[in-house]
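Next up, a specimen:

>
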Amino acid sequence: MKNTPQTLARFLPATLQSNGIICRDETPTSAKEALSRGQLEAKDFIEVSPDIESTLLEAFIEDDYDGNLHLMTLTIRRRDAVDSDGARKSLEEIIGLSFWREVPAEEIRDWFDVERISKMITKSTIEHEHDDEFSDHAKSRLKLVRNSSVNWIQNALRSSSIDAIDEDKIDTQASIQQLTHSWVKIELIAIKQSYRAHHLGNILLGCTLSKAQQRNKHAVLHVAGGGATKNVAAAKLYGRFGFVRIPKHEKGGPFTKPDNDLFVLGNIGKALEDLPFEETFQMK
C-alpha cells in the first residue's frame, strides 16, 4: 500500500515535539522582554550586517507597519541549565527568528511589471536549482509545487480577459488586481550561530509559511549575504520549499528594482500540502 505524503500541518508538530522546540508567534511586548534578557542580540544571529535584524526588531516593537510585520521565533528548552544556587532548571533559549511582512497591494503593484510577467511565462525563464539532493519521488512532488508558482500567474493573466490569447489582449488593470493581492515578504530568517547545521532553518521556514498562509497566498524573499551565488545554504533552503528563482528585470523578470536574488512561492497553501517534508526536514 502506497504511503500518503504528509502535509506540513501533520509533519511539523511532531518534528517540533521530538526536538523539544517551540515555534512562537511573538508580540511587540514579548519581543521587548526577550531583548531585555539578551535573547535577541543581532550579533548572535547575523555575522554580516547585523543592523538588518536590529532595524527589523525595532520596527516590530514600535509597530511601524501597523501590525503587518511579524516575528516568529524558534525556542528550545534547555534542561541542563543551572541557577545561582547550583540547582538544575529548565531554561528557554531563542535559537532562530524570522521576520515576515504582509505587503499591501499598492506596494506590490509598484514592484510588478505586468508585461514582463507575461514574457517570463512565455519564455519559461524561471530557474530551478539544487534538485540533485532529492530522490526522484521528492523531485516530482517539488516540481508540482514549483509549477503552481507559474500557473497562478498564467491563470491571473488569462482570467483578465475573456479570450486573452496573446499579450495584446490582456486587461492590464484586471491582471494587476489578480497578481498583487495576498503577498507576504520574508524579510529575514536567521538561526543562532551555535545551532546551525541541524535542519533548524527548514523548521523555521515551515513555521513561518504555515502562519503566513492563514491570510496570504504568495510569498517573495531576497537572498542576502552575497546573493544566491554566495549564500548557497539559503538558496538551497528556499528551493526545498518550492521557491523559484526569478530573473532580474533586465533579463525578463517581473519585478522592478530591487530585483536581484529574488525567490517567489506562488502558492503557499499548495506547498504546505504537497512538498516532500520527509526529506526536506532531514537534509542539512
Q: What stands out?
A: The beta strands are 21-25, 69-82, 88-103, 183-191, 218-222, 244-246, 262-265. The CA atoms of residues 96 and 259 lie 27 Å apart. Residues 1-5, 121-127, 159-170 have pLDDT under 50 and may be disordered. The longest helix spans residues 136-159.
